[in-house]
Amino acid sequence: MDAVPKPPEDVELKNIIDKLANFVARNGPDFEQMMKTKQKDNPKFSFLFGGTYFHYYQYKVSAEQQIIQQQQKASLAAHQQAQIQQAQQIAQSVVLQQGLQTAAPTWQATSPPASQLNQQQAIPAQWLQAPPPHVSQQQGATPRMTPQQAQEHIQQSKNNLDAQKQLLLAQQQHQIVEALVEHRHQLTLNDAANIGVDVNDFNQNINPVIDNCTKDAIAMGKSWIFNHARTSQDCDIITALLLQKIISKQSPFNAKLHLIYLINDVLHHCVRKGASDLQKSIQGIVVACFCNTMIGTDDDRKKKLGKLLTLWENNQYFEPHVVEQLKQPILSLSQYQAKQVQSNPAVVQQIQSAFQIKLDNLERQHNAFAAHIAQQITPTFTQPPPQTNNVEPAFSQSPVTQPPPPGTTSTFLTPEECQLAEAQVSAINQMVAETQHQQHHQQQQQQQ
Fold first, then answer.
1. Diameter of the chain by CA atoms?
2. Which residues contact 123 (CB under 8 A, 6 or more apart)?
3. Are 408 and 171 a contacting pair, CB within 8 Å?
4. pLDDT, average across residues 427-442
């Protein structure tokens, strides 16, 4: 049996890892991805990116998942049994009430008086949705629940709605970034085919650099690049292929670093041989390559990249404004992604439309549930109320946002934890709107 990874001696760091592992186990990989994005420059969260306590963090996530699964099974069985018992108690109380109210042949209330119920017990959901088929409400019926109880149910549904919205925003941002990378990759492959760059040949000569990064591998990759970078178009396609390998989500840090070492060697020979077109093409992709590699890594790896940046600056491989961008990786990478959004509005709009439908559906579910609950606290009826369909609380099918069984607690994402995702989505929405306005303005000018 594998030994349990040793936890950090720092109590604060251990608490951070333990708490985050619990949140990730409950809310899934989207929450973890959001925390990586938010805490990529925070050294206390280096364990998310393969730091010293990465294995302990993984062990805690796995352990928390097993505990939650066991709790869910036990809670579900207990909850079902409690519901049966509560339903029996309510039914017995109603039958007793009917016997005492001999003047009224039917129910005077849809539930027994509050004094007959254990105040520690919650009314089962099925009794809050509609009365049993054989029961009809008459004039003078007492409320099914108190205003406070109704407000608690509505607030729970609202909390579920907010939590689901936050998760959807994080998922939307993640999908947009992935979709843009994949879209750009397909465009690059199409362009390569159009000008005759053999992508398979490129991979055969570049992949050894990724795997080993020996002098021979670097020399072979560099030689292939110079032999095939005959025109400015060739240079753009070759450097775009390098970019796609570096920013791919499947690329580990070492693969990215090895390719940047290759770029550094190519830059050196560009200056020696006066290959200005190739050097210019590298300048066009180096910010995205370098910043993508820099963000989220540990201090030792940042030092390696920092030495390269100092070398590039001293040798004046790039224009000054490019060097300044390389010194601000988070801002520069965000600006790069924003440009990708502006350049590909159709890709973004397709994802946004799909997520907006989900958000609208969730909002309607909550509003319907809130309206249904409001009917339950009406003190009297002058006429039989309209029949209402069983309305499930918002997101009742979602394991993340489903109201927890008695005796358990549920964990929701806080607005602070989703602030970065919300800000990025807001910026994307604004850029898409600006792009649409520009397109509309251009169409009007063409018509004139």
1. 106
2. 86, 90, 111, 117, 144, 145, 149
3. no
4. 62
